[in-house]
Amino acid sequence: MHTRSLRLALLSSLGLVPFGCRSEEPTDGLQLRSRLAQCVSSTPVPAEESPGGAVTRIPGTFTGIERCDNGVLHRPAPVTCSSGLPRPLPPAGDAGSASESTPAQSDFLYGDRISPDDPRACEADADCSQNPHGYCGLVDVGIGPGPGLLLQCLYGCVQDADCGPGAFCECGDPVGHCVAAGCRSDADCEGELLCAALVDVDACSREHVSYACQAAADECDSDADCPESSRARQAFECEVEGGRRQCIERDQAACGRPFLVQGSERLAELRSGDDWTGGVVTAVDVLALAQRSLAAEHWARAALMEHASIAAFARFTLQLLHLGAPRELIEASQQAMLDETAHAKACFALASRYLESSVEPGPLAMDAALDEQTLEAIAVLTFREGCVGETVAALEAREALDDATNPEVRAALGRIAIDEQRHAELAWRFVSWALARSALMRPLLDRELSRLEVELFSPAAAAGEAECPEHGVLSERRRQLLRRTAVAEVVLPCLRQVLALPPAVALEALA
């Protein structure tokens, strides 16, 4: 995939030097065996850096896991975890205020979550008493068109005995959680070998962590130790096979800035008309009816999304003017609006070609579209539309271009891929600019980070497999994977690095 180059481009646009970049040099078994024996020293891993850990985190909570100076995660010895349960109730209201005005514990802890009515929902840690160490935690249950965030009772641990056989208790916030493990400490392993983590990233970009004793014949500890594949949609993964960890090659399932109003994507309706195509519809290539229908549906939706992106950038330009933003950002937003207009024209032409009839967009509703007027609200909206939406769009266009063979489709995707990356860079520059000017931005972006992590750790929704890659149509399942991959490998690493900068440095990076 193109995630590494996209991540580097976004960070470079902010003047930042990327960290944590994965080596692309292949490693052999001899090098790995030497590496496994070189854990000279290790440092405790805080909960916020632990793979597969809880989403809501208190910085400084340590897990009982340590990271070697060569990067290997291991568990030196069993520990007894501290518990933050029950967590604090909301501050009391002002004297004389009505009790109804005091927020619930869930509102106090999680803010503006999505909380649909559901019999499984909880409001406070006290609601979770079925088992020991219960608390009310945020999970994604996949309700509605986007991530469905719901508070449910979760149950943790404070010691290994709470987890039963085949697991140990990793400390965290607000309490420990059980992790699959074939060992509970380095002492369970022979010689200098460690009780080390094996991090498996599934097809939905979720990390699953387990622990086992290293073996002298191990080739790897994680996917990061394995070489890049030379074949499209193939990847080497570190897996236990034949009693040792090996790098095994596996198959991998392999537009435009969304116009969000009150959290929902807004599009015009498709109608007959030739205003966006000039009335010229060229004959479609010889193509089976099912494939032609699939391509027509895909490019019609892509056209409406690109059309909505024009509105998104028109609004963004007004918002930048309202905030007194730098001229460079305003000019880039105006250029992006022209880019999206060109994208929409190309997509409507393709949709018309596969439909064999000219189509165009109807009216696009604007009510409530300018409700966000504060710096913080505009920055959060820009993060969702641009830093996430257009980063995903850039990766999707690149991947579709790799497989497309139709010349008109390749021409459209080639421009879209380049432009969407530039638009994503603009969004990241604006968010960095906002971060340097408002103390409220950091906790808001922390919340966005947690929201995206919840999305990654949630089960993937059922999705169709139908695709027509020669004509730029990727299956819905593959598009879901691309979104999760973009979030996991590009958006979250970039956001963590931006948040790691002191405000003065963030401001200097944008200058």
Would you write up a description of this structure?
- The protein is an alpha+beta fold and 511 residues long.
- It folds into three domains: 3-16 and 29-81 and 157-251, no CATH class; 107-155, no CATH class; 260-510, Ribonucleotide Reductase, subunit A (Orthogonal Bundle), CATH 1.10.620.20.
- It is built from ten helices and 15 strands.
- It has helices spanning 3-13, 29-36, 105-110, 289-323, 327-355, 375-403, 407-435, 441-457, 476-500, 503-510; strands spanning 42-46, 62-68, 73-74, 134-140, 149-155, 167-170, 177-181, 195-201, 207-213, 234-241, 244-251, 260-261, 264-265, 270-272, 359-361.
- It has a four-stranded mixed beta sheet, with no helix packed on it. Strands 1-2-3 form a three-stranded antiparallel beta sheet, with no helix packed on it. The chain has a two-stranded antiparallel sheet with strand order 4-5.
- Strand 4 (134-140) and strand 5 form a beta hairpin.
- Helix 4 (289-323) runs antiparallel to helix 5, helix 6 (375-403) runs antiparallel to helix 7 (407-435) and helix 8 (441-457) runs antiparallel to helix 9.
- The longest helix is centred in the middle third of the chain and has 35 residues, at 289-323.
Summary, kept brief:
This protein is of the alpha+beta class and 511 residues long.
Strand order of the largest sheet: 6-7-9-8
Number of helices: 10
Q: How much helical structure, as a percent, in the residues?
A: 25-40%
Rg measurement, Å? 25 Å
Q: Assembly type of the shown chains?
A: single chain
State the shape: globular
